[in-house]
TrEMBL record:
Polar residues bias (residue ranges): 1-12
Gene3D superfamilies cross-referenced by the UniProt entry: 3.60.130.30
Protein name: Uncharacterized protein
Stretches the record annotates as Disordered: 1-22
Length: 422
């Protein structure tokens, strides 16, 4: 695979999702109103060396979606309260409800959720009330080779957990955090929490740094990361190009920033090492407000009985087997998993992008604080142009989602998305 240091890299990816059988789940959730106030990032940052800066993007577009579309209508939509919006917000909704309660499939169905069974070879796209594709579940590539890939990746995360517990890289208190009770390793480029500029996430312990490096070098993990990125392109080519454009500019402006993977557009990854990586209901408030994060479960559990993906505002509960990829608007839609059985193991890999990175680029590679210290009118002009009104920015973000009728055309275009955010 060739490389360029000058900007966006175009590269064929080997695991393009199959588009032979696509179903649509149409909900009445109105994404027009799903918007949240700015949030803070919780992790620290630091410099850990250099790698080539480049951005990968799928060159080979998936084949057009078929004509036979299946629509399911979800009843009882929840409309989020627009009064929580903050002007100039780039990140997700701040979540004040700190509930650690889990939900069973039965409870969710009683609450009106629609159950979406997994069917091998079928990709599910879910659209909002305006037919915007706001996420989906992409099936794993067929064949024995992918089975080995997910098994190897599972072992890598299992080993990280065992070694981490043995070396002190993981402590018992690390089991308990905002998203659930499991060990997790976070690495990549992020921005938030009062950080002056984007940076590589620092591991607080050297032992953790070694664990992260060993996982990043694992070929199965690399392949999964590339597949997640391809799935993102498959579902949201315009939004993907926005990531490629903005993040390409960011990485080119700071040579110390490192990509986690050659084949992924995402700047950050969480390796959720289990033993039971089951999340409680949450927003990912630091992520780009209209972004899509990619999640793949791994491990050995009965996915008919547990580990389902719950999308609260969409009122969906989906079977979510190991090796498949879910793309979800994690900053705008609350999500969680149903519990798995005692003794079972579930790990997962989640790739995402912090909203603060895109805000930094839109502010001309500056923070809001720096803009504030500039000559008053200059700084204010840049900020107002980038922030716009809360509703206007949100609608602009939504315009980057494809609709069920535009998706085919959206693959074909060569053009980057509108540059009004940059
Ligand atoms: Fe999440």
């Amino acid at each position: 695979m060739g490389r360029t240091r000058s900007g966006v890299q175009f590269s064929p990816l080997s695991d393009d999702p199959s588009t032979e059988d696509v179903s649509f789940i149409q909900t009445e959730w109105d994404s027009t109103n799903a918007f949240g106030a700015a949030a803070t990032q919780e992790e620290g940052f630091g410099d850990e060396g250099e790698l080539d800066s480049h951005v990968c993007i799928a060159e080979r577009a998936p084949t057009p979606i078929p004509n036979e579309e299946i629509y399911l209508t979800i009843s009882g939509p929840q409309r989020t309260d627009f009064s929580h919006c903050g002007g100039g917000s780039w990140t997700g909704r701040r979540d004040s409800s700190k509930s650690s309660r889990s939900y069973t499939v039965h409870e969710l169905e009683e609450m009106g959720f629609t159950y979406v069974p997994y069917e091998p070879g079928r990709n599910v796209l879910f659209s909002d009330s305006q037919t915007r594709i706001v996420g989906g579940l992409v099936d794993a590539p067929p064949g024995e080779e992918w089975t080995l890939t997910k098994e190897n990746a599972s072992v890598s995360l299992q080993n990280a957990r065992k070694i981490g517990a043995g070396t002190g890289a993981f402590l018992n208190k690390d089991l308990n955090h905002r998203r659930g009770r499991y060990f997790t390793l976070l690495t990549g480029v992020s921005m938030g929490g009062g950080q002056k500029r984007p940076g590589n996430l620092a591991q607080r312990l050297r032992a953790r740094c070694k664990l992260v490096q060993s996982i990043l070098l694992n070929e199965s993990i690399k392949r999964i990361a590339g597949f997640q990125s391809s799935a993102f392109y498959f579902l949201a080519p315009k939004l993907y190009r926005r990531y490629a454009n903005d993040l390409g500019r960011l990485y080119n402006s700071q040579s110390e920033l490192r990509w986690n993977f050659d084949g992924s557009i995402y700047p950050c990854v969480a390796f959720n090492c289990g033993p039971q990586s089951i999340t409680t209901l949450h927003f990912d408030q630091g992520n780009l407000s209209h972004g899509l994060c990619a999640v793949m479960p791994l491990g050995n559990f009965d996915w008919k009985k547990g580990g389902h993906l719950v999308l609260w505002e969409l009122k969906l509960v989906l079977e979510f087997p190991p090796g498949t990829v879910a793309l979800l608007p994690s900053a705008a839609v609350r999500h969680c998993n149903t519990p798995i059985q005692k003794g079972e193991e579930r790990m997962s890999i989640t790739q995402f992008a912090a909203g603060g990175l895109f805000r930094w680029v839109a502010y001309g590679m500056k923070s809001a604080k720096e803009l504030g210290s500039m000559k008053a009118s200059d700084g204010r002009t840049v900020k107002e142009k980038a922030d716009k009104g809360a509703e206007e920015r949100w609608m602009e973000g939504l315009s980057l989602f494809s609709t069920t009728t535009s998706l085919e055309q959206d693959y074909r275009t060569d053009q980057l998305p509108p540059t009004s955010l940059v």
